[in-house]
Design goal:
Blueprint: E1 4-7, E2 17-23, E3 31-41, E4 48-57, H1 58-76, E5 83-89, E6 93-95, H2 114-124, H3 135-146, H4 151-163, E7 165-166, E8 170-171, H5 184-196, E9 202-209, H6 214-238, E10 248-257, E11 268-272, E12 279-287, H7 290-305, E13 307-310
Helix pairs in contact: 1-2, 1-7, 3-6
Length: 321
């Protein structure tokens, strides 16, 4: 790991946020087909002597790649203003954070630190063996999080209201001014809905799990669409200014399969999972080796953050503006 990345000259919007969901159930608790060789230095000379191999779990590989994804984002965007949250999914879904306060359940203004992420993963322990574990528990938490308004999103809405422009798009129709004597709260909601048509609430989910068949994939895709639509209905009925319906969700399913078995699923490009194009899903299958999973995670990160990669070492990472 440690590949260098630089940015394309395409800015990320105020609606940009990502949730990484890691399967913490029994399918990630098994040993991976990749073995780690252990060598020790001989007393005489500089030769290395092979002594043993260590079996790594699929969970260990997934954690390493999640940390690598975090490293890329924190290095390429040194001001740490790109919002990314991590969720574990087993019998329940839970955010990876060392702080359990209500404040940490909301989007902040900065990326979680590497130390905090590392410590929260360590405290979670090994994957559960319970068959009641489900990746959908993490998906629900991720969707709930994406429906929350971030501070950056609020500022963009506020700026659009004051300037009368859609960011980067020039003039747009004037926001209707509430008439005197009208219902101010109702007018405020109409104004916010009007503005949000120009700054839609978008987001992305990176889902690392293990699927055994095409039927499981289709069921997961249908469940994701149902969860998003259900959450949107709740948000609309709530009328809470802290939330906004999700209008565009991209979901990257990273399917990890055993190298001792045939690949059960072929890759699928990003495509709509329903007739409304609300949810778009891409499937990326990879064998359970660190290098293979890392390559897939790199590809997803490039797409998420509009990056290009370079294998030249010594070049500082930067973002083009």
């Amino acid at each position: 790991m440690g590949k260098s990345f630089v940015g394309k000259p395409k800015p990320l919007g105020a609606d940009h946020k990502v949730v990484v969901v890691l399967d913490h159930g029994p399918r990630f608790g098994i040993g991976a087909s990749e073995k780690l060789p252990i060598h020790v230095k001989e007393l005489a000379g500089n030769k290395q002597k092979f002594v043993a191999t260590i079996e790594k779990s699929v969970w260990s590989l997934a954690v390493e790649c999640a940390l690598e994804m975090h490293r890329i984002v924190s290095d390429v965007f040194p001001n740490n203003n790109k919002l990314m949250r991590f969720v574990l999914s087993d019998c329940v879904g839970r955010f990876l954070t060392s702080d359990t306060s209500d404040v940490m359940k909301q989007w902040g203004d900065s990326l979680i630190s590497r130390n905090e992420l590392h410590e929260s993963i360590k405290s979670a322990g090994k994957p559960l063996t319970s068959e009641d574990s489900s990746i959908l528990n993490g998906v629900r938490m991720a969707v709930d999080a994406l429906s929350q308004k971030t501070n950056a999103y609020r500022k963009a809405i506020d700026t659009a209201q004051k300037m009368g422009n859609r960011p980067g798009q020039g003039k747009r129709p004037r926001v209707p001014i509430p008439m005197r004597g009208g219902n101010l709260e109702a007018n405020k909601q109409k104004r916010d809905q009007f503005l949000q048509t120009f700054i839609p609430n978008r987001g992305a989910i990176v889902l690392m799990t293990s699927l055994k068949s095409e039927e499981e994939l289709k069921s997961l895709e249908a469940d994701i669409v149902e969860i998003v639509k259900g959450r949107n209905l709740i948000v609309k009925n709530l009328g809470d200014d802290n939330f906004s319906p999700i209008e565009d969700l991209r979901c990257y399913i990273i399917n990890v399969y055993s190298g001792n078995l045939a690949n059960p699923l072929q890759n699928k490009s990003m495509q709509s999972a329903d007739d409304t194009e609300l949810v778009k899903i891409q499937l990326l299958s990879t064998v359970d080796t660190g290098e293979a999973i890392q390559m897939v995670v790199h590809a997803v990160t490039l797409d998420l953050y509009n990056l290009v990669s370079t294998t030249i070492t010594g070049i500082p990472m930067k973002v083009c503006t």
